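Working notes for the structural subgroup meeting. M.R. asked for a predicted model of this chain before we commit to crystallization trials. I am recording the input and output together here so anyone reviewing the notebook later can reproduce the run.

Input as submitted:
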Amino acid sequence: MAGDVPVTVANATTRDVPVEIQVIGNVEAYSTITVKAQVSGQLTDVYFQEGDFVKKSAKLFTIDPRPLQAAYDQALANIARDEASLGQAQANLARDTAQAKYQDTQAKRYADLLAGGVISKDQAEQLRASADAMEQAVNADKAAIESAKAAIAASKATADNAKVQLSYTNIFSPIDGRTGNLTVKAGNVVMANSMDLMTINQVEPIYVTFAVPEAQLPAIKKYMAEGKLPVRARPQDGDVKDEESGVLTFVDNTVDVTTGTIKLKGTFLNASHKLWPGQFVRVILKLTTQPNAVVVPNQAINTGQNGSFVYVVKQDRTVESRNVVTGARVEQDMVVNDGLQAGETVVVEGQLRLAPGMRVVVRDSSGGGGGRRGKRS
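Returned structure, recorded in token form:
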């Protein structure tokens, strides 16, 4: 009929719809290590190229070990010297102990002779004095042994420290990761703990940090209690094939009062290295799946003074305006939580010329979106 308004329509359908939060996030290294020299000396060797991936315990640098090797050798020599001194002190103790025993026996025998009037008192006192002197010599030998043992312990501690210092001349990677810019080239002298040689970022696994509105926190906590929540991330200019999948592993313990958001982190295996520290990415946090949700194409949803509404085509080809409650957007479709039943026909093109009660004629159109489009007789 000439007065009918030509429109394109689609049927409301049902499908399982993922309930997701989509935000922009930032990739963060799982671990960042700053490599420093722990001893001073000339940097003699570098065993990697800038930007290389290195394994844990891989050798990175060598600092000239000769001064520290000499200090270690001297400490070992001091141990040998102190052990020789201990041996000598032990030999002196054995000699003086035997001598003291003999002197004590002699003094006792002369004391008996003095009591019998055979020798003079002066002779007996001289022997007792000699026996007492040997006893003090034995005590001195024991003290010398303890001193030698203490010297050995001190020398061993010095040797252990020298050995540790010597081990610092070889610098190894503490983690698996990718090396950054080398700030000191081979041949330069480095100072202990005063300069960064380079940094290593661990990118397998890797974090993606993002923030969501605090209003989403109850839902996140609810679904986290049911199991790990999946997270997807891809570069802002990437498509689905560039996505990496991970799980939500961290929810901050406070809401940022300045932004009204809460910080979250997802952990990704990142075996393909698609995610890079510092990169901005699109983050999709899946909370749950809404089963049998009613969906229509986005174009079917109109906005009026009373909120969202759709034009529903009735059997007599007249339209009615129906208020609806919309839910999540899923690609080119919109979830309708209330106000529409599956199978009902809605107008997706031509709404600007419509008013409730007007008759329509359905134009031919290729199918697509959330429901089947086509003619209505």
